[in-house]
Amino acid sequence: MRAHHIDRPADLDDVRESYDRVADNYVHMVRTTGMGDIRTHPWLKASVDAFADSVSGRGPVLDVGCGPGTVTGYLAERGLDVSGVDLSPRMIEHARRLYPHCRFSVASATELDLEEASLGGVLGWWSLFNLPRAVLPQVLALFARALVPGGHLITATHVGDEDFRRTEAYGGVPVRWTTHKWRPEQLTGLIEQAGLRPVAELRLPADEHTGPGVVVMAERPA
Ligand SMILES: C[S@@+](CC[C@H](N)C(=O)[O-])C[C@H]1O[C@@H](n2cnc3c(N)ncnc32)[C@H](O)[C@@H]1O
């Protein structure tokens, strides 16, 4: 039995099947438009660079909800010992093809068996918004426990109050998932409750492609 129990989201299978269906279009979008690639967004890239600097030398890094591995591959290029995990087998197929030098596995953030104080860094990069509201705090607590003292979490997510039910995504592909939006202060509150100390926050206004977002970086106190 895992030391850390996390409730299984009731819609986990729907979410997995949905991301399997959109994975090919998602990869095509990243490749052809640069959307979803931090290299095309200076502020997102700066956040990930600051995270990389902060976790360098502290231990392995885990990119949870890594999708096709864009950030995992970037961090590996920067010399970090990084691996990726994602709910969607199709996303992981792409990640393994695109970044064959990185380690990837298929699993839900809610089913990870992470040793206490085993990670220098953990990412939930635009990948935790499908977790039901009651489940996100449990996953954040798992991450907090898995970090070494001085280790860092970085997460990016959609800002708002609503639970937005999506029925299509990435070029009209039918999906069934809910985007649980968070107000920045709610998210940082949950991160603090999980035992981490927020160290930076970046707010992203809505633009022509997407709604507002927030990036939060937090540290496990020494
Ligand atoms: C918008 S994509 C972002 C992917 C990647 N982080 C990136 O920035 O390109 C969201 C990803 O979160 C993954 N995901 C959703 N729920 C998850 C869960 N419970 N556990 C692990 N991954 C999950 C999806 O399969 C999908 O690949």
From TrEMBL:
<dbReference type="GO" id="GO:0017000">
    <property type="term" value="P:antibiotic biosynthetic process"/>
</dbReference>
<dbReference type="InterPro" id="IPR041698">
    <property type="entry name" value="Methyltransf_25"/>
</dbReference>
<keyword id="KW-0489">Methyltransferase</keyword>
<protein>
    <submittedName>
        <fullName>Class I SAM-dependent methyltransferase</fullName>
    </submittedName>
</protein>
<dbReference type="InterPro" id="IPR029063">
    <property type="entry name" value="SAM-dependent_MTases_sf"/>
</dbReference>
<dbReference type="Pfam" id="PF13649">
    <property type="entry name" value="Methyltransf_25"/>
</dbReference>
<dbReference type="GO" id="GO:0032259">
    <property type="term" value="P:methylation"/>
</dbReference>
<feature type="domain" description="Methyltransferase">
    <location>
        <begin position="61"/>
        <end position="151"/>
    </location>
</feature>
<keyword id="KW-0808">Transferase</keyword>
<dbReference type="GO" id="GO:0008168">
    <property type="term" value="F:methyltransferase activity"/>
</dbReference>
